[in-house]
Amino acid sequence: MGKNMEAKYRTLYDAKKNELEILREKSVNSIWKPAFHIHPQFGLLNDPNGLSYYNGEFHVFYQWFPFDATHGMKHWAHVKSKDLVNWERLPVALVPVEDYESHGAYSGASFEVDGKLYLYYTGNIKYGGEERSANQCLAIMDLDGTIVKYENNPIIEGVPEGYTGHVRDPKVFRKNGRYYMLLGAQRSDLTGANIVYESADAVNWSFKGELKLELDLPDSVYMFECPDFFELNGHDVLIVSPQGLKAEGHDYHNIYNVIYVLGKLDIDSLTFEVQYYQELEKGFDFYAPQTFSGKNNERLLFSWAGMGEVEYPSDKESWAHCLSIPRELTIEKDRLLQNPAQEMKQLRLNSVGAELILEKEFVEFDNASNRYELEIEINPEDNELFGLELFASESEGLLLQFDSSHNTVSLNREKFAAAFGSEFGFVRCASLVIGDAVKVQVFVDASIAEIFINNGEVVFTARVFPKENSTGIRVFSAGKLTCNYKKHELAQ
Ligand code: FRU
C-alpha cells in the first residue's frame, strides 16, 4: 500500500507522540464548533451509529476518522446522555484492529438482546484498487458500559452470491419472534438493493434474500446505504440513502440523498408494498440518518449533518461535521414529519418575543450570538415574497424565502465569505402550500441551522461558516407583514 493509504488506514493506537494533542489544539478555538450538536473534537464525523436508549441512558455512536477532516480508517466514537441534550464523551467504542475489519468499523445499528446492547457493524475490507469485501460484526455492551467485540466475529463473513463487496450498514429488528438484519447492498450488475438476513438468536445469521421494493428510481442508483426500518402509527417505514439519484424538480439536489418509504412489509415473502415515498429532507447537509426508540417509545432520528465529496471550511482546522439535533418522527396524513425532539426544550434559557408589524423592507431583532432557537409565525398578508435571514450582517446571510405565487420555499447559502460547495449549487427548494401563515422553528448553533417549517412538513439542514459578527436575524418582505416571534437563548 502507498504511503498515503497507510496514513489513512491507521488506528488511534498508531497515533504518534503528541499527534492527538496537536490535532485537538488546531480547532480548540474554532468559532464554528457547535455547542449542543454532537461533533468531533478533531477529525471527521459521519454517520450516527448504534443509537439507543439503553439502561436509562441515551447512547450515540458515530463514524469517526481521528487524523484529519477526511474519510479514512473509521472508528466508532461514543457519547452518552441522560437527557438527550447534555452529552458526555466516552472512550472510543470500536477501534478497528482485527483482520475482519482491516479498513474500518463501518456503520451499523444496535438492538437490545437479553439485557445487553448488541452493536452490529460492518468490517470494511479493502484489497488493492477497487477490490473490496465486507464482514458483518458484533460487539456487546453490558449494563456497566463495557464493550467487547464478539469472540467469533465476523457473524457474517463476506457477501452473498450476486452482490459486490458493497454490502454494509446492518439494521436489526425483530418481527414475529425472529431477528432480521437489513443491509445496504450493490448487485453484481452495479445497481442498488437492500438484502435481509435472519436469525433465531441475534448471533447466527442466514441469508434470506433481497427486499422486493418497487420504487420508481433511475437505473443510475448504484448502492443503497444505511437502511433503517421501523413501525409507526400502523405504517411500516423504510428510510434509506440511495446513491446515484439524479436531480428531479426540487428533489435530489445533493450528491447523495435520503428517501423515506411508507408501506407494508411482508417479512416472509420479503415484499415491501410501497404506498408512498419521498425525499426526507430538503437541505444541503443531511445523510445516513438512523432512528431509534426514545424514552416513551417515540421514534427519534439523528442524521449526519454533512455530505460526502464536499469540502467544508472547517476542513482546514482538521475537523469536520456534526450530527443533527435529535428529531421526533410522526406520521400525519400519510406523510412523515420531522420535528425537534421534546427534550430540546430543556436547553431553553432566556426567552424574548413580540409581535412585529413590518412596514419597511426588513426588521432585525436584537441578537448577539449564533446559539438560539427561534419560533416564528409569519402572516404574509398580500406579499408574495417574504422570509427570514439568519447569520445576517452587512456582507453575509442565510436566506430562507417563501414565494406564495409559486408555493415554494427556498434556502440560499451563497452570501458568505466562506461559501462552499458551489459545484453542488447554493440553493435548495421545496414545494409548500403557503396559506395565511407559515410557522418556522429554527435551531442555530455556530455553523449549522436546522429549519422546521409548518410542523415538520419541510425541513432544511444547512451548514454555513459565518464571520464572528454575522449573528443578525431579519424578517423581510416587499410590503407590510405581521409576525409573532419567540427567541430562546440556549444553554451549553
Ligand atoms: C454512509 C457510509 C456508510 C458506511 C460509512 C463509512 O455515509 O458510506 O455506507 O458504512 O459511511 O464511514
Automatic annotation (TrEMBL):
Entry GO MF terms: beta-fructofuranosidase activity
General function of this protein: Enables the bacterium to metabolize sucrose as a sole carbon source.
Involved pathway(s): Glycan biosynthesis; sucrose metabolism
CDD domains: GH32_ScrB-like
Regions that span the bilayer: none
Domain Glycosyl hydrolase family 32 C-terminal intervals: 367-480
Keyword list, A-Z: Carbohydrate metabolism, Cytoplasm, Glycosidase, Hydrolase
Organism taxonomic ancestry: Bacteria, Bacillati, Bacillota, Bacilli, Bacillales
Entry protein name: Sucrose-6-phosphate hydrolase
Main location per the UniProt record: cytoplasm
Catalyzed reactions per annotation: Hydrolysis of terminal non-reducing beta-D-fructofuranoside residues in beta-D-fructofuranosides
Localization (cell): Cytoplasm
Family from the record: Belongs to the glycosyl hydrolase 32 family.
